[in-house]
Amino acid sequence: MTDSEAPNFWLMKTEPAVYSMDDLERDGRTPWEGVRNYQARNFMRDKMQPGDRVLIYHSNAAPPGVAGLARVCSAPYPDAFAWDPDSAYFDARSTPDKPLWFLVDICFEEKFSRLIALSEMRADPALDGMALLKKGQRLSILPALPAHFARVVMLKETA
DNA sequence: GCCAACGTTGGC
DNA sequence: GCCAACGTTGGC
Question: A136 CA to B5 C1', in Å?
Fold first, then answer.
């Protein structure tokens, strides 16, 4: 199976105090800049493609949880924030000739009417094995199984 | 290449 | 604010 077939499924973390689901709804589309972890970068640079589906997760929040849905809506491209000395995401090792960090654009799809809390996901046997729920998981971008993605979407319909 | 020290993430 | 878990850095 080639990369151009079925969409992939992801979970992307954001701190709502920095950038929330409401911000994404307002913006409609945003470059997912500032990822400075190689594994997370590799997911964006090597695996993501337009149309991929994304659970937007609020980390460092009270409570933490999935706030809504988005889609990957660009091909991967270099993160220009790494070239800006005034940016918090500046990294002198990255240059326009040899970019080190990459990103994709993320487009708003749906804000859930209620947050699917981390505690609720932990308690759901249908989500056993979900990467997000593994101990010590700190990656800001995680692949999700289609079944887990669908289960989270189903949970939003329940009270 | 090892590994201790350090910094960051992120739940609680 | 605490701290466990993990990634990165840098001395050797």
Answer: 20
